[in-house]
Amino acid sequence: MLKDRMNRRCFLKSAFAATVLGPAVLSIQRQAMAVNVSNRPNIVLIYADDVGYGDLNCYGADGVPTPNVNRLAREGLRFTNAYASAATCTPSRYSLLTGQYAWRKKGTGVLPGNAALIIDTNCRTLPAMLKQAGYTTGVVGKWHLGLGNDPALLDWNADIKPGPLEIGFDYAYLMPATGDRVPCVFVENHRVANLDPNDPIAVSYQKPFPDQPIGQSHRDQLKMDWSHGHNQSIVNGIGRIGYMSGGSAAVWKDEDMADRFVEKAVGFIEDKKDKPFFLYFATHDIHVPRVPHPRFVGKTNMGPRGDAIVQFDWCVGQILDTLDRLGLTDNTLVVLTSDNGPVVDDGYKDEAVERLGSHKPGGPLRGGKYSAFDAGTREPFIVRWPKQIQPGVSEALVSQVDFIASVAALTGQTLKTEDAPDSLNQLDALLGKDSVGRSHVIQQGSGTMAVVKGKWKYIVPSNGPKKYVQTNTETGCDTEPQLYDLRQDPGEKNNLAKVYPDIVKELGTLLQDIKQAGRTRL
């Protein structure tokens, strides 16, 4: 336990490393020496959106077919204790790419569509580190980390920067934020794709443009009605968050979004196949608005959400088939995970609630997107690298924030003290050589925080609402401390805080010390 109250320097150098982090903190330099950097694998990171722990066949779902994800799990290592760092998208994505917990930096909550870039361009990010290692780097899909320096000065009709290219990506094809937020256009590198200069784009998050129909007053024009929010500009017959005018030739068609992202991702792999590449493929399928392509409609009995899961699985299959076709499979590390837990009604009347049936998006876990309970951040996580990773199932405790330090070790890179402060080298766990993984994981809900260590999970007391009524999500917030034994009680139903006050104190101190230290990796 962390009971000794030493001075800050002594604490950082000895107690924090030895007691809090223990064997999880390994020297990046020492680990890198063991890697044959001449045989660096290609890396494909498939980052799903709002896919829950129980949404995929290989994690227990039986109402929606996911044969391609099943193939990946069958040929790779499937983790059962893997976590995103937050229960919402922007902070998880920030942590993934920077190796820093998003709660350490203000302004890293869920962003509007016209937000400024929240990643410091001087930060050594995952793509920047891989670029220095000789990789060609690309991002395709959902971004939601902001663009430009100032929303008031951002001009969607000119060069849009800084953005992905300024933090280490060589190529970018993305949606600026999410499908339910304007602007509803794709940005390729620094420019809006297919923009007609005679039809300029204007974006506002304050007031509608004159004579523009909006979802709140023109519901008769909607092909998908809204249940809460999502009632401002109507684009492709769907109400969005925010207001947009112009850019007609550039506006996306929701039904074609998956096809477009797959086309660009496959093109990137084909173009860069002759040297090491890193592809961050951030899909959007299960996030609202759920409008799968017509060829996927009706593939499940669960309506658009279930059909969108099938569409996501197809996207995965296209990437795997491309690697096979180009002879790249054996030398490509593929990682599949999700940014946060599931949500059913997230603002549109798409029958997701009515047609859910026996399907449990969070599996045996409690909560969901926005929640400090485990379904908010415990994610599907599959790693495949043929001939290097033995297929199977791992119970090792891993976090997405560790990706940068682990990949640094894999590719022979050295992280400086100021780089990726919360990222720990968990390469052995990812390769299936370590069945334990991290000593602890920190979870960021929308109203409180939690820490998992061993079998125990502690949720910090909070005055936040216990439930988000609109999404029917239990937040995990409570004015009393919460302590759960995740091995015996994965559904977090039996609060043991009063039974084990010493454990509550230990984990509370652990969390507080990590906050005060300003970093996890020393």
Structure write-up:
The chain contains ten helices and 20 strands. A hairpin with a 2-residue loop joins strand 8 (234-235) and strand 9 (238-239). A ten-stranded mixed β-sheet has the order 6-5-4-3-11-1-12-13-2-14, sandwiched between helices. Helix content is 22%, strand content 16%. Helix 6 runs parallel beside helix 7 (304-325). The chain has a domain at 41-190 and 255-310 and 318-430: Alkaline Phosphatase, subunit A. It has 522 residues and is α/β, with parallel strands linked by helices. It has helices at 8-21, 28-33, 67-75, 89-98, 126-132, 257-272, 304-325, 403-410, 427-430, 501-517, and strands at residues 42-48, 77-83, 136-142, 171-175, 187-188, 191-192, 202-204, 234-235, 238-239, 243-245, 277-282, 332-338, 381-384, 392-399, 441-444, 449-453, 456-459, 467-468, 473-474, 482-485. The longest helix has 22 residues, at 304-325.
